[in-house]
């Protein structure tokens, strides 16, 4: 038995020498056993983007950009039908836009000779009046000055109940403000004929309740034809045929 014990010691010593010299397990240890004892490799994580591509998932959506705002320097207002952009009389007129003609006075019972040219009058805050004020009793019918359609119904802080009418060519906008109420059934997109009743004189917005009137303006639209952007034009000569002062 001593010779067997001596043989085991010799083999152990040989294995240690082999391991020290080669830097790997000696012949007494199986490489397969060492591999079995090794830890399995860590799984490779899958990025969400890769997962989406492999499963057909849609890419993540981004927030919609903010809607465009009207130019600064315009009073804020509460819209009638969902938009927050207040009117802004700025921007160049559409090219080759002929001046409107054949307009009727937009207040029933008022003759052209009864009008006063208030365009350009000074207003508070160094503002300039860019319209005509047509005085009339509250409830007097307000008339469409020409054919066209209702582009926008708008309830603003200063103008109160307002109507924006585009004429058929899309070059001009007619603006009616401080209305007491709209004509029954009036709606955006509605076709209008010259002389149609669209509302009634009032003092909504910042108008003096003791002085009901129609604030009537004419705007030359830009090529984009946006109801809140345009260049104000004096309505007085368009309604009376008289030269501007």
From TrEMBL:
Region listing for Disordered, in residue ranges:
33-101
Task: State the source organism's domain of life.
Answer: Bacteria
Q: Which cofactor does it need?
A: Zn(2+)
Residue ranges, compositional bias (Pro residues): 65-74, 86-95
CDD domains named in the record? M23_peptidase
Q: Which UniProt keywords apply?
A: Hydrolase, Metal-binding, Metalloprotease, Protease, Zinc
Report the EC code(s) recorded for this entry: 3.4.-.-
GO MF annotations in UniProt: hydrolase activity
Q: Name one Pfam family in it.
A: Peptidase_M23
Read off the InterPro entries from this record.
Answer: Cell_wall_metabolism_enzyme, Dup_hybrid_motif, M23ase_b-sheet_dom
Q: Where is the M23ase beta-sheet core domain?
A: 127-234
| Hydrolase found in the keyword field | yes
Residue ranges with Low complexity bias: 47-64, 75-85
Q: Which SUPFAM superfamilies match?
A: Duplicated hybrid motif
UniProt protein name: M23 family metallopeptidase
The species is Luteimonas kalidii
């Amino acid at each position: 038995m001593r010779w067997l014990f001596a043989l085991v010691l010799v083999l152990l010593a040989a294995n240690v020498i082999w391991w020290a010299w080669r830097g790997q397990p000696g012949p007494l240890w199986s490489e397969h056993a060492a591999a079995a004892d090794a830890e399995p490799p860590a799984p490779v994580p899958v990025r969400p983007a890769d997962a989406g591509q492999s499963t057909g998932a849609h890419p993540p959506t981004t927030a919609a950009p903010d809607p465009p705002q009207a130019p600064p320097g315009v009073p804020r207002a509460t819209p009638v039908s969902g938009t927050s952009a207040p009117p802004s009389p700025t921007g160049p007129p559409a090219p080759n836009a002929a001046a409107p003609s054949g307009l009727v006075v937009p207040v029933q019972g008022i003759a052209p000779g009864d009008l006063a040219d208030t365009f350009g009058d000074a207003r508070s805050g160094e503002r300039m009046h860019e319209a005509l004020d047509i005085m009339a009793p509250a409830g007097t019918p307000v008339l469409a000055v020409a054919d066209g359609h209702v582009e926008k119904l708008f309830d603003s802080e200063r103008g109160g109940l307002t109507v924006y009418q585009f004429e058929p060519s899309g070059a001009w906008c007619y603006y009616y403000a401080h209305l007491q109420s709209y004509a029954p059934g009036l709606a955006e997109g509605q076709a209008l004929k010259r002389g149609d009743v669209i509302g009634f004189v009032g003092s909504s917005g910042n108008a003096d309740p003791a002085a009901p009137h129609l604030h009537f303006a004419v705007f030359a639209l830009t090529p984009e034809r946006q109801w809140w952007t345009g260049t104000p034009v004096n309505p007085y000569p368009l309604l009376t045929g008289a030269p501007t002062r």
